[in-house]
Every structure is written in structure tokens, then in C-alpha cells.
Amino acid sequence: MKPQAKADLAILMCTLFWGSSYLFMQMGLKDLETYNLIGVRFGIAFLFAAAFFHRRLLGTNRKTILHAFILGAILFGVFATVTSGVKTTTASQAGFLVSLTVIFVPILSILFRNKPQKRVFFGAGLAVIGIGLLTLSSELRISQGDLLCMAGALFYAMHIIVTGRWASQSDTIQLGIFQLGFTALFGIVCSFLFETPALPHSPESWLAVLSLSILCSAIGFVVQTVAQKYTTPAHTGVIFSLEPVFAALFAFLVTGETLTERGYIGAGLVLISVLIAEIDVSRWRRDKQEEHLFS
Fold first, then answer.
1. Comparing C-alpha atoms, which of 75, 108, 71, 54 is closest to residue 187?
2. What is the pLDDT of residues 185-230, one digit of tens each?
3. 116 or 78, greater pLDDT
4. Could you give the CA distance from residue 227 to residue 265 in angstroms, rounded to a whole number?
5. What's the gap between Cα 152 and its chain centre?
6. Is the CB of residue 155 less than 8 Å from the CB of residue 293?
7. Cα–Cα distance measured from residue 42 to residue 30, given in angstroms and rounded to the nearest whole number
8. Which residue has the higher pLDDT, 256 or 133?
9. Is the pLDDT of residue 280 over 70?
10. C-alpha–C-alpha distance, residues 142 and 138, integer Å
11. Percentage helix, strand, coil, to 5, in the chain?
């Protein structure tokens, strides 16, 4: 199997893990409060990843630690909003709303003087229609959970942009692992300030927390970083767009959760908007033509 094919399969595995995370968050929140869950989840993820790559972490410089601290703060923002959001929305809706990250990334890139392509604005417009169908109630109101998940997508877009700017300046493994540690630290501090910290006290919650920690966080973030060295951004983006599909599938298989007919139409439009924003059809055609010429 070619290295790119292996990388694409690895990213597909990460996407499968992340699709399951919304359901696991709902399960974990039965025993733990929001910040407590984040602290425990990322604390275990940090210890697991640090133990596996302990030699790689030796000699980490201050610049990497500083960057990891800032990225950890942004990542805490991602999961503070999304974890709170899944309390009052469905796992499948959360998955589709967080996938709006793909739309937000190029739009936020305008701040760095990177003008998005026209297809991104078309995708964004389609996403707005999809969000309306997916989330608006008969009273034309969006639930607090849906708004928090959209805020999480905005934070995640910021995280991707900042990571992209700093990844070449640091060891990506060190950066990825230490950001997990700082995310855990922020969660633990906020839990002590605003909640009553505790550990899971049921088998279901422990299953959820360990799955979030090891599969979705430690393995997910590290494998993604390594795999992206061997595949293209276009492949990565298209595979990541399957995350809300996996989220809806897990929610249906485990809890029987379904959307309304209007919700499915909205979810479909959100997914199409993500694909439009990610796939550069003209470039794909050029690459295929070049492959044909040199094959």
C-alpha cells in the first residue's frame, strides 16, 4: 500500500473516532460537569501521549511551550463550548454544526490577508440555509446548544489557522502533546473554580472518558499530525468532512437518535457546503490530467 493510501486510512480512522466523540461526551456528562470532563479527558490524553513519546519531549524549548500554551487555551475554548453544547442538542446535530469549521477557516484567513476562493463563499451561503433547516424551531429560535456548537466550530477554525502558522516553527509532536496538557490544566482549574471536581463513578462514564482520552484525543491528534505529512490537504479535508456523517451514524446505532425530515435536508446541505469549500474541482482535474500524462 502506498504511503498516501496509508495516511488517508489513518485520517479516516481519526475521523471515525471524532465522529463518536459527541456521543461519548453526552455519556461522560452523566457523571461529570463540563470543565471536569475536559480536565479528566485531556489529562489522561496528555499522560498517555507523553508516556508513549517521552524521549521526544526531552529538550522542548520555551517557544514550543509558549505556542502549546496558547493553542491549549484555544483548544479549551473549542471543547468548553462543544461539551456544553451537546447537553442541549443532539449528537448528530452537534457533529454537523462543528463541521462548519471548514467554512470558517478560509473566512477567518481574510484576517491574515488570504482571500478565500469564490466557492468558499458559495459554500458558506449554502451552510447558512442548512443550519437554518437543521436548528431553527417552529418559533424560529436556535437552541443554546446549537449556538455553542457553532461557537466551538469558530474556535476550532482559529486553532487550525494558528497551528498552521506555528507548526513549521516547532516539533509537531511536542506541540501536539503539550497543548493537550495545557487544555487539561485549563479544564482542571475551571472545574475547581466553578464546579465540584470528581472522577467518573460508573462503567459507562469510564468507557466514555477513556474513549475520549485515548482514541479521540491522544491517538487522534498525534496520528493526524503524522499522517498529514504523507497526504494532500485536499484529501484530508474531504475525509474530515465525513465526521458529521459518523456522528449521526453512531448516534443512530447506539441511541436510536434521528433527525426530522427537515433536519436531514439541512444536514445534507451543511455536508454539501463543506465539500464545496474543501474540493477544488479545477485543481483536481489538472492533477488527474498530469497523472494520466506521466503514467
1. 75
2. 999 999 999 999 999 999 999 999 999 999 999 988 778 767 767 7
3. 78
4. 33
5. 9
6. no
7. 18
8. 256
9. no
10. 10
11. 80, 0, 20
